[in-house]
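User: I'll paste a sequence; please echo it back and then give the predicted structure.

Assistant: Echoing your sequence first, then the prediction.
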Amino acid sequence: MSIRPIQFPDEVFARVCPDLYFERHLSLGLRPHSLRKFDEFRQIKVKFGNTDSENWQDYSSNLTLGTSSVRSDGINIVCSVTGGITEQEPVAGSGIYPNVEILRGGVGASSANGGAPSEEEMVASQGICDILRRLVNKESHNKCQFELFEKDLETGKSTVIPNKWLILNCHINVLSRNGPISDYAWIAVLEALKDVTVPEFRYNYDTQQVEIMSGAAHPGQKLDFAFLNNKTQIPVASSFGILNANLEVEDSENEDGDETEVTLEKTQVVIADIQGESEEVATSTTHQGSRVSVMVSGDEKLSAFSFVGVTRDMNAIKQCLALAKSRAQSIGAKVDSGDTLWSTEETYRG
């Protein structure tokens, strides 16, 4: 009886042994799903929506104030910001409520079918919500953005409508993905908020309801959050994977000088912007990997940091922080937060 090795096509081998498949590529200095370097991020394209004051209806309907879409290699995310009015004053930085939904083939999102959101959706939504609250709480000026103002047509002065506040709901729909989605969902939320135009309001004393003024005479105004207007303060999210890989290393020629030997060397590798199933599996805690998420602004202020895994190598974590800072400075230099980029695309790359 003869024993023959079993050979699998690449796509089958990647599913059967994703960690070994990944290590084979790392030994060649490659990543299995792209030609990116280990510390290189994917190219990101952002498209801003186009909200029109002519389409504004009463606040009880689905009032879309701003939209954005984020596209990358294998990732497509759409974010729309809708407005509502509440009689309860937002406290502790509340007032912006993100909700992440991941579409899964023909069944759509779990919540769209009446089911409970997945753990990944809840973690991503809560993480974005926590960061937004901290950013809003940083300056008292930000809290004024949730007040409703009524403009006097004769004097042109604006007065605050009492006991009425604006709330913003961020609907983040992940249409496709091939890796962690938190970084890209955060970009979609930021760009949609920059696209938001808050309409003008009027209080109807007869019905005791707030009405929205539409038309060219009532163009509304942009959101004036401090963290959106200063490009060096825009928080940029970056994620990394750390794994202990057994890489194949060719030794020098042996004493006979006629052949080389291949040995396995255990090396710790930092992977930026995880992409594909094999990279996700290899950097997961079940395979003795680690995940690092960093959110830092262009002025090197750390907004959030999370670490899950088993590594104790501080050099790897320092490398993640250095890469995140460099990426934030690079993106901050390209983004002009003061401009309104209607229906245009901008490309960001770390």
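The chain has two domains: 10-37+237-253+262-333, 44-223+342-348. DSSP finds eight helices and 15 strands in the chain.
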